[in-house]
Amino acid sequence: MPLLSDTLKRVKPSATIAVTNKARELKAEGRDVIGLGAGEPDFDTPENIKGAAKRAIDEGKTKYTAVDGIPELKAAIADKFKRENGLTYAPNQITVGTGGKQTLYNAFMATLNPGDEVIIPAPYWVSYPDMVQLAGGTPVIVPAGIETNFRLTAEALEAAITPKTKWFIFNSPSNPTGAGYGRAELKALTDVLMRHPHVWVMSDDMYEHLVFDEFEFCTPAQVEPGLYERTLTCNGVSKAYAMTGWRIGYAAGPVELIKAMGTIQSQSTSNPCSISQYAAVEALTGPQDFLPEFREAFQRRRDLVVEMLNAAAGITCPTPEGAFYVYPDISACIGKTSAGGAKIADDESFATALLEEEGVAVVFGAAFGLSPNFRVSYATSDEVLREACSRIQRFCAGLQ
């Protein structure tokens, strides 16, 4: 038995990955299971992007690259930020990692010391607190519940800031809720941050292109240029371009921070996959005509899921502005007993009973820091979603 470090005690495995794996195991055993846990589009990577990867292989672009990204990709990222966000970055202000998760992790590892605090609105992406703890920092969880449509208020942010605050993590549209901050709502937060010059901003914009109705995406350094020098703007090709397995994320920020993040990466993974980087160049610079098609499909699925879940007894499901998640509230289900005899004491027992009795795998809300809720990923077909929601309705109807 190897000797395990104390660091391991500070983190727990990803709950979303655990749910997805559990659903796969049950399917392998012959169970009829619908998995709504995975946060990835069901669409295939567009053909032009796959073609760029094939050309890169044929042209022998299979060697080590610069640690934090090839020049062509950094140029494409700089163009993207200028074109879509009105933000100007030089190549030495840009870093490319093995997925968006690595860029966030590198930033924490490069900046956090013991005692440094990181403000994280809840519900949050499951990895934020654990990455902070791995880097030696202290997560400060600030609830942003259904009463504010899962958006952090300026007052709550102000109250959470202390002299020890190093970072504020901002994610819009959000995983797990899909909640998006409009310009006025974001400006209220950036006004607070302008009063606290020691606080840095980490903006996770991974779902930027997956927004619905009339919602307009904006990012902190765009809304408040005064934050430019202390903002790390993070993004990637995983969600919008259906490239989750290609593992390419990127971030832009001050030169000193980007250089430090590169140092961390140089002693961990070194460069991201060369083939994936050339594919990402095509994703950012090639045709974008499939994005409206993806958005239309996701919006249709959102509307289907929201309508069907709100028709389930005891469930309240807000309508999100983006991403491909809903985060329904199940307060009215707590304390009841399922048709199969399971006691519904919290959202974890709700999710467990739902999986065992109806074969629907969802992620319980406690994993995201706010209960009693559960997350549904609607990144699957209309037919599958309709069947899954029918099973959830049946499960809820059986609660006594």
The helix count comes to: 13
The helicity comes to: 25-40%
From the 3D structure, determine the CATH topology of the largest domain: Aspartate Aminotransferase, domain 2
Write the element-wise H/E pattern from the N-terminal end onward.
HEHHEHEHEHEHEHEEHHHEHEEEH
Query: What gross morphology would you assign?
Result: globular
**What oligomeric state do the depicted chains represent?**
single chain
Major sheet, described briefly? Answer: 7 strands, mixed
CATH class type of the largest domain: Alpha Beta
Distance separating the two termini:
47 Å
Helix vs. strand class: alpha/beta
Instruction: Calculate Rg over CA atoms.
Output: 21 Å
Please, could you describe this protein's structure?
This protein has 13 helices and 12 strands. It is α/β, with parallel strands linked by helices. The protein has 2 domains: 147 residues, Alpha-Beta Complex (Aspartate Aminotransferase, domain 1), CATH 3.90.1150.10; 224 residues, 3-Layer(aba) Sandwich (Aspartate Aminotransferase, domain 2). The strands form 3 sheets. Strands 2-8-7-6-5-3-4 form a 7-stranded mixed beta sheet, sandwiched between helices. Strands 9-12-11 form a 3-stranded antiparallel beta sheet. Helix 7 links the parallel strand 5 and strand 6. It is globular and about 60 Å long.
